[in-house]
Structure formats: C-alpha cells, structure tokens
TrEMBL record, chain A:
Keywords on record: Amino-acid transport, Cell membrane, Membrane, Transmembrane, Transmembrane helix, Transport
Transmembrane parts of this sequence: 20-42, 54-75, 182-202
Taxonomy of the source species: Bacteria, Bacillati, Bacillota, Bacilli, Lactobacillales
Lyase as UniProt keyword: no
NCBIfam families xref list: HEQRo_perm_3TM
One Gene Ontology term, aspect cellular component: ATP-binding cassette (ABC) transporter complex
Pfam family, one: BPD_transp_1
Protein name per UniProt: Amino acid ABC superfamily ATP binding cassette transporter, membrane protein
Membrane-topology annotation of the record: Multi-pass membrane protein
From TrEMBL, chain B:
Source species of the chain: Weissella halotolerans DSM 20190
Stated family: Belongs to the binding-protein-dependent transport system permease family.
Localization: Cell membrane
One Pfam family here: BPD_transp_1
Protein name: Amino acid ABC transporter permease
InterPro entries: AA_ABC_transptr_permease_3TM, ArtM/GltK/GlnP/TcyL/YhdX-like, MetI-like, MetI-like_sf
GO biological process, one term: amino acid transport
Membrane topology, from the record: Multi-pass membrane protein
Membrane-spanning intervals of the chain: 20-43, 55-76, 82-99, 186-205
Keyword Transmembrane helix: yes
Lineage top rank: taxon: Bacteria
Length: 215, 218
C-alpha cells in the first residue's frame, strides 16, 4: 500500500488539496448564508420568517446528491460551471440549511432578557443582534458548528459524482487505472480520517469543557 | 407544457415510483438493523468494559468520520477482493448499516449519558444489577430524549440512499437520471419530481418523529 501511495502521491495530494479547498469554501459560504437565514427566521417580520422556513425545510429534506446534480446538470447549461464549482455550490447550499438551524437554536438559547435589555437601552433590533445576542449565540454553537464542518468534509466526497477532482474522485480514477479496488480506498480513507478525526476529538473536548461551564 | 406532460407520463412515473420503493426498502432495512446494532454498540461504549469498550469506541469513531460514499465503494468494489461478494442491493444495505450503526451508537451513548446521574445511583443502591438498571431505568428515559436526533439521523439515512446511485442501485435518483439521459427535455421535470418525492418522504418521517416526541413529552 505504501508503494501505491508513493507511486501516485501526486494524485492523492492534489485530491487532498481539492477536498480541503472545497470544504473551506463551502464552510465560509454556508456560515454566511446560514447566519443570514437564521436571522431571517428570528427577525420580527412574518414574510422573511416564512421564506427562511421554506428554504430550510426544502433543502434539509432533499439529498445533497440531488442538489449537486441540479447544479451540474441544469444550472451548468445556463452558466458554465465545472464539476468542482457545481459540487462546492451544492455543498454550500445544503450545509447552509443545517447551519441556519444550528445558529437559530443558538440565538433562541440566549436568554431573552439580553435582547430585551439591549432594546430598552436604546439599541436598535439590528444593533442588539449584532453586538449583544449573536456574539453569545456563536459561542454556544461552536461545538455543533464543528460537527457540521466534519460532516461537510465527509459530504465533500459528493464531488466524485461531478468529476470534482477531490479525494474520492482520485480514488475512483486510481482504482480504475490500476485495477486495485482495495488499496486506493484504504489510502483515501486514511486521508479523510487525518482531516476529520482530530476535529472530532477536539469538538468532544470542547463540548465537555463548555458543559462544565468553562468557555 | 407538452413536454412537461410527456415527462410525467404514467410510464415514467411508475418507473420512478418503483425506484422510490427501492429507496424505502433499503432505508427501512438499514434503519431497523442499524438501530439494533447501534444501540448495542452505544451501550457497550457506555458501560466502559475495559479495553473491549475502548476498541469498540475507536472503531465507531473511525467509521463515523469516514464518508459514507467511501464505505459504499468499499463494500461493493473492495470486499470482493477478499472473497466477500454481494449484490448491489445487499452491499448498499450493508454499507448503510455499518455507517448508520456507528452514528446511532454515538446518539445512544450520549442519550444515556444525558440521563441524570442520580437515576443510575438510585437504581444501583436499590439493589438492581447493572443490566437491570440499564434495561428498566436508563434506556427508557434515554430513548425518550433520543427521539429528535434519531429521527434526523433516519432522515439523513433516507437521503443518503441516493449515494448508491454510483453503484447503480436502481433507486429513485438513479431512475430519474436514466430517464433524463434518454430525453434531455425531461431534465427539469425530473429534478422537480425528485425533489418533491424526497421532500414528501422525509418531511413525513420528520413530522411523525416530532409527533411521537410530543406524545412522549405529554
């Protein structure tokens, strides 16, 4: 297996890089989008509440594969998108719905008195969100957001469906080229674990500390 | 408009619905199996049975941190190398069960941990053995709390069956692709239909879940 890795190190490393790149772009995008939708859900405005709710429910109940294929097959005919872009966009939209739910739960678990206090001290609703509620909410949601990031990294394997050059795609290409259906998958599995395992243990550690009232 | 009606002809719809049935079949079998196996693994991990629990816990962590797609590939293409041959349906079910068992094991373990410690201590000091305590005191309370995460795990299992498209399991996503590969004008109707079918299926499951959750609370 080590010889297989050595002889195809370039493919593995580039796949590793594309997986990381896609995950980071999707994480940043879905954090922004997710926070926007979470805010839309808590804003005292009926219309935006409903829009956000519909978006979140639809995206959460449709497989990532269907969303990604939609961008790769349908949207790519109008605007030119390569597999990597389509996959990353699909990943971003899919994850944003989950992050929106997480952030909304965080906002709701901040004590109501904080918002009321900020409002009665003369801050506008947006100012109270920006300076008082959101900073507290984000501290609460760090562990669940970390877990979202782990599943985002795992979900980035969806790029293999749309020729997104990521780790999973490279494993398929290699196993087709070398007729070895065992080695490439094991190596790629180890590479995924290098990304996800430390994060997962760190999140468990954080959860424990936050539960003890550390933070 | 004409194209839309053609795309939703009864032949196509029946073809898709047969795929939806495959999706449901795989999901139900995997949910059943992974619920049992996951609960066992979670309990083993919770009980802290020395190195045995440590090893089980490590394996669970490894599987949880791998992409499901990789596990599906591995069971379908990798395992025949070491002499284990399975059909498409079988290897999808096995892969889903392996992955979901690990996810459910974590849910079960943290569910049991979330039961107040006094319950365990009270039961033990009343003379119940550890297995009795688990069965009569801890698990009933833990499973009540676990309904929401379990249901969302089941919903994601149903969604993840679409990944088996890559090994050509004839489920609903694969069949939609088959249809629009033959008729490019059916692409958009097929995606709408897919979204609709998955949405109805998953939304029903999650609503059922929150219904049971409310019943349990009351």
């Amino acid at each position: 297996m080590w010889t297989l890795f050595q002889s195809h190190a370039n493919e593995f490393i580039s796949g590793f890089g594309w997986t990381i790149l896609s995950s980071i772009i999707a994480l940043a995008g879905s954090l922004v989008l997710g926070t926007v939708f979470a805010l839309m859900e808590v804003v005292p405005n009926r219309l935006t509440n409903i829009i956000a709710k519909i978006y979140i429910e639809i995206v959460r109940n449709i497989p990532l594969l269907v969303i990604t294929m939609f961008f790769y097959v349908v949207v790519a005919r109008v605007w030119h998108l390569n597999g990597f872009a389509a996959g990353t966009i699909g990943l971003t939209l899919y994850t944003s719905a989950f992050i929106a739910e997480t952030v909304r739960a965080g906002i709701n678990s901040v004590d109501k008195g904080q918002l009321e206090g900020a409002l009665s001290n003369g801050l506008s609703w947006w100012e109270s969100m920006r300076y008082v509620v959101l900073p507290q909410a984000f501290r609460l949601v760090i562990p669940p957001l970390g877990n979202q990031f782990i599943s985002l990294i795992k979900n980035s394997s969806i790029l293999a469906f749309v020729a997104g050059m990521d780790l999973m795609y490279q494993a398929n290409m290699l196993s087709q080229a070398t007729f070895d259906t065992f080695g490439p998958y094991i190596i790629v599995g180890i590479l995924y674990l290098i990304l996800t395992m430390p994060l997962s243990y760190y999140m468990q550690y954080l959860e424990k500390h936050l539960a003890q009232g550390g933070a | 408009m004409q194209e839309l009606i053609q795309a939703y002809s009864w032949i196509n719809l029946r073809f898709l619905l047969m795929g939806l049935w495959v999706t449901i079949e795989v999901s139900v079998i995997s949910i059943g199996l992974s619920f049992v196996i996951g609960s066992l693994l979670g309990i083993i991990r919770y009980m802290k049975l020395g190195w045995f629990s440590k090893i089980v816990g490590f394996i669970v962590d490894v599987i949880r941190n791998l992409p499901l797609l990789l596990i599906i590939f591995f069971t379908y293409f990798g395992l025949p190398k070491i002499g284990i041959h399975m059909g498409v349906m079988m290897s999808t079910t096995v892969a889903m069960t392996i992955f979901e068992s690990a996810m459910i094991a974590e849910i079960v373990r943290s569910g049991i941990l979330a039961v107040p410690k006094g319950q365990l201590e009270g039961a033990l000091s009343n003379g119940l053995t550890m297995p009795e305590t688990l069965w009569h005191i801890l698990l009933p309370q833990a499973y009540k709390k676990m309904i929401p995460p379990l249901v969302s795990q089941f919903v994601s299992l149903i969604k993840d069956t679409s990944l088996a498209t890559i090994i050509m399991l004839p489920e609903v996503t694969f069949r939609a692709q088959t249809i629009y590969a033959q008729k490019p004008q059916a692409i958009i109707p097929m995606f709408i239909m897919l979204a609709l079918l998955y949405f109805v299926l998953n939304f029903t499951v999650s609503q059922l879940g929150s219904y049971f959750d409310r019943r349990m609370e009351a």
